[in-house]
Write a structure and sequence with these properties.
The protein has six helices and no strands. By secondary structure, the chain is mostly helical. Keywords: Membrane, Transmembrane, Transmembrane helix.
Length: about 230
């Protein structure tokens, strides 16, 4: 029952993390191919409450799932599997902080809004950029460790191929974003980010199913693999 509840929470975190798809339900001056998701819940934007609610719910589900799988004792064995769960908790904490610290305005949309800061460590210029970076690193850590655990131990076999395939798609989208971010021209960065975040949602749902269907034989009593 513990694993079933944890798996449901992980899957719900993935579903709620895709609240950005609601942007297609109402008119907006933001172009999905070029705008970043952080702009959807910028201060004073209409419908921002829906996106914030989605991220907050994602965070609560992620933290709750991690707690269920770690307390009172880890539900899985192995450093990689437990590390993935800890990274999930960190993702939850960073995401709720991110949701509650929106950007104030959108360049080229809101009047008198300055361009994004540049230079050394631009993330330090705004808490939203910093928490977004932490959340992305945390979920990447969870995905990499989760796939590694699936290959090295009997736990979460669904992630061995399906999880790895989704992770590759996310990695390609991330490279797309990083490589094109400082280049001049139209590289559809909004599309790249939506593929990235959409892939993360799919991966979390897959992980949730894997946790919910996890065999009791893969719990710490027999899961000593590293």
């Amino acid at each position: 029952m513990r694993l079933l509840c944890a798996g449901v929470l992980v899957a719900l975190a993935g579903i709620c993390y895709s609240s950005w798809v609601l942007e297609f339900l109402w008119a907006s001056p933001l172009d999905p191919l070029r705008s970043f998701l952080s702009e959807l819940d910028a201060a004073h934007r209409p419908h921002r409450g829906w996106y914030i609610a989605g991220d907050v719910t994602t965070s609560i589900c992620a933290i709750g799932a991690a707690a269920l799988m770690l307390v009172p004792r880890p539900a899985v064995g192995g450093v990689a599997a437990r590390g993935a769960i800890v990274a999930l908790a960190l993702f939850g904490v960073a995401t709720i902080t991110d949701a509650l610290s929106p950007i104030e305005c959108i360049p080229h949309i809101d009047a008198d809004c300055p361009e994004e800061p540049s230079g050394l460590l631009p993330q330090l210029h705004h808490i939203h950029a910093l928490t977004s970076t932490v959340a992305v690193f945390a979920i990447f850590g969870a995905m990499i460790l989760g796939v590694l655990a699936a290959w090295r131990t009997p736990v979460w076999p669904l992630l061995r191929h399906w999880g790895l395939a989704v992770l590759v798609v996310i990695a390609v989208a991330t490279v797309w974003m990083l490589a094109a971010d400082d280049l001049h021209g139209d590289y559809r960065l909004g599309l790249a980010q939506r593929i990235q975040v959409g892939g993360m949602s799919v991966w979390l749902v897959l992980w949730g199913v894997a946790v919910a269907t996890q065999r009791r034989s893969t719990t710490p009593a027999s899961g000593s693999a590293r």
